[in-house]
Write a structure and sequence with these properties.
The complex is a heterodimer of chains A (272) and B (323).
Chain A: H1 9-29, H2 61-96, H3 99-113, H4 117-127, H5 132-158, H6 162-169, H7 174-182, H8 187-210, H9 222-229, H10 237-265, H11 267-271
Helix pairs in contact in A: 1-2, 1-10, 2-3, 2-5, 2-8, 3-5, 4-5, 5-8, 6-7, 8-9, 8-10, 9-10
Chain B: H1 2-35, H2 40-45, H3 53-62, H4 69-81, H5 94-129, H6 134-148, H7 151-165, H8 181-215, H9 218-225, H10 230-260, H11 262-267, H12 273-282, H13 286-314, H14 316-322
Helix pairs in contact in B: 1-13, 1-14, 5-6, 5-8, 5-10, 5-12, 5-13, 6-8, 7-8, 8-10, 10-13, 12-13, 13-14
The chains are: A mainly alpha (272), B mainly alpha (323).
């Protein structure tokens, strides 16, 4: 079956495009200032003025949603970039480097992989200043070993191929072999890993913000809005529903796209 | 005899690895005190109160912070080995806090795993036996949703429906067993189900793919050819062979839950070890952070070790290959 014809894949692609679009132009279409407090309209339901209602300070939930996506997307993109670059480099060293160094690198990767990400994140962000930059670095570092594993196993498969041996036979230096022969041929598993990492990074960032250890108020982020709304379930039940819906749909869409991409790029699955 | 020796070797290797992991963690945890910003002595005395240099020096001496780092490290490591995790910044032993909160996390984790296994395994079997049909597609999509939806969203929605709308269950908190057994379990239901649903999705996926793999094997076809009843083939042969990866993923999930309950504990105000850790992190209570991280990591490593050993016990092929 072609990738685009699978049920849900098109819808997921549409959601992802929409999310990116909103992250870019959200401030232009937001009906209110997301930080504007209105003591006369606290915890209201949907109305003509406030389409999705207001939060505990009378701020417009829709506007906060439109703004709140930005730190999440920024952290997810930056941390995935950090994890991809660092992890790919480590993974290639782990497969192509000197045996002693390679073994050491993969040992460290294994140990790092054996800890729940949220624990590492909690430990790190708990003590440093929270913000987009530090969150990105912390989450990026946490996902480096995941990338390293994928890159290493892909590289191991590639270095036995003739074209790599041909480069060697022509006397190419290691960096050239990596750049010309290895990297282009391990890209597709890395792309799939990147999609999964973006989804995981979004979950991790919003989880930390939910715990109050991520994006610092009053700036909105989806996870933090859910965490705050938890305290107002009685007064304003829809307050928790909107950011939850946005976050769940976004992550679901990215995961479905990632699955479809993996099936598409894996020739064994394509033949079925 | 040979397999026994082989198993002993595997056991030895895994034990050594686990000990190294524990040591690395302990060292990292110890270094928290030194790499993180803020002077613990000032935190203890309260920086606002402007403590005199003499008072700072005295406290530093009491805490042993004026000794060389290596001495402190060895002492800390030795104490930790004896179960002495130091003193929390408010004066109580860290071990007391851990003793009070850890069982609650374990109870929640075990309950969640029960929910997950009781739901995930039958669903996975149903999906595998109906491969390619509507039920399979439906269950597989459902499991993608289950994996994607963050636990705190699922939990919030469950609270909205079952606690606030229907009023069937309490929305959060913890009641000690000695106070009220009924209420204790009522309060366990929502957090356990919240955690369990997400895990059930992965278990169902693993069960499905592992069943499908075994169903495609030659021996299944020959069992059918010999005229064995379908039900007997599935329950007696396929399921037993498919069980190893399923048991493994359940074990790994249990290990992950030692630290992985953090969001659900926060959502439901469950006073487990993750709540302790989050509070300690927010208050910069370093000894408490160290103690809870170390405990979580130790449990995680021990459970993973058990899963690994169980795995090599269950599957003779793995035993031989690794040895």
């Amino acid at each position: 079956m072609r990738m685009s014809r699978r049920p849900g894949v098109l819808a997921s692609a549409a959601i992802v495009v929409l999310v990116i679009l909103v992250a870019l132009i959200g401030p232009l279409i937001a009906p209110h200032n997301p930080l504007l407090i209105n003591q006369n309209a606290v915890n209201q339901g949907s109305s003509a003025t406030y389409l999705l209602g207001t939060d505990e300070f009378g701020r417009d939930i829709l506007s906060r949603l439109l703004y709140g996506i930005r730190p999440t997307i920024a952290v997810a993109a930056l941390s995935t970039l950090i994890a991809a670059i660092g992890g790919t480099a480590l993974g290639i060293v782990g497969a192509y480097g000197r045996p002693a160094i390679a073994a050491f690198v993969m040992r460290v990767v294994d140990i790092m992989l054996s800890f729940p990400p949220i624990l590492l994140a909690l430990l790190a962000v708990g003590f440093w200043q929270s913000g987009i930059a530090s969150l990105s670095v912390v989450i990026g570092l946490i996902f480096i070993p995941h990338f390293a594993r994928v890159a290493q196993s892909a590289t191991l498969q590639v270095i036995r191929q003739e074209y790599v041996e041909a480069e060697h036979a022509m006397g190419a230096r290691a960096m050239r072999v990596v750049g010309r022969a290895i990297l282009p041929n391990i890209l597709s598993p890395l792309v799939v890993q990147a999609t999964l990492t973006i989804a995981a990074a979004i979950l991790l960032e919003s989880g930390l913000s939910f715990l109050g250890l991520g994006i610092i108020p009053p700036d909105p982020s989806w996870g933090q809005m859910i965490g705050t709304a938890r305290g107002y379930l009685n007064q304003n039940p829809m307050y928790v529903v909107w950011p939850s819906l946005c976050l769940a749909l976004t992550v679901l869409a990215i995961n479905i796209l990632g699955d479809a991409l993996r099936d598409h790029l894996d020739p064994r699955l394509r033949q079925e | 005899m040979q397999t026994l020796t082989a198993f002993a070797i595997v056991l030895g290797q895994k034990l050594v690895t686990a000990l190294i992991q524990l040591w690395v963690i302990a060292t990292l945890v110890f270094s928290i005190m030194y790499v993180m910003p803020g002077d613990p002595v000032l935190l203890l005395l309260g920086a606002e109160s402007n403590p005199t240099p003499e008072a700072i020096a005295t406290t530093r001496h009491q805490l042993g912070l004026d000794q060389p780092v290596l001495t402190q490290y060895l002492k800390w490591l030795g104490n930790a080995l004896h179960g002495d995790l130091g003193t929390s910044l408010n004066g109580y032993p860290v071990a007391d806090y851990i003793q009070a909160s850890m069982p609650k996390t374990i109870e929640l984790a075990v309950a969640a795993i029960l929910v997950a296994a009781l739901l995930g395994i039958p669903l996975g079997i149903a999906a595998a036996l109906n491969r390619g049909r509507f039920l399979d597609g439906f269950l597989t999509s459902l499991s993608t949703v289950g994996i994607s939806v963050p636990v705190y969203i699922l939990g919030s929605l469950l609270i909205l429906v079952f606690s606030l709308q229907l009023g069937w269950l309490p929305s959060s908190g913890y009641t000690d067993m000695s106070r009220n057994v009924g209420l204790h379990y009522q309060k366990l239901v929502l957090p356990a189900v919240t955690l369990g649903l997400g895990l059930a999705a992965s278990i169902a996926r693993m069960t499905r793919s592992s069943m499908l793999e075994i169903l495609g094997r030659d021996f299944v076809r020959s069992l059918h050819a010999r005229g064995m009843r379908e039900r007997r083939v599935i329950w007696l042969h396929v399921l037993r062979n498919a069980a190893i990866p399923i048991v493994t993923i359940i074990g790994l999930q249990l290990g992950n839950l030692m630290g992985g309950t953090v969001l659900v504990e926060a959502l439901f105000n469950w006073p487990g070890i993750s709540t302790l850790l989050v509070t300690a992190v927010s208050n910069r209570n370093y000894p408490l952070v160290q103690g809870s991280i170390l405990t979580i990591a130790a449990l995680f490593i021990v459970i993973n070790l058990c899963v690994d050993l169980l795995y090599s016990l269950l599957d003779p092929r793995i035993r031989r290959r690794r040895a």
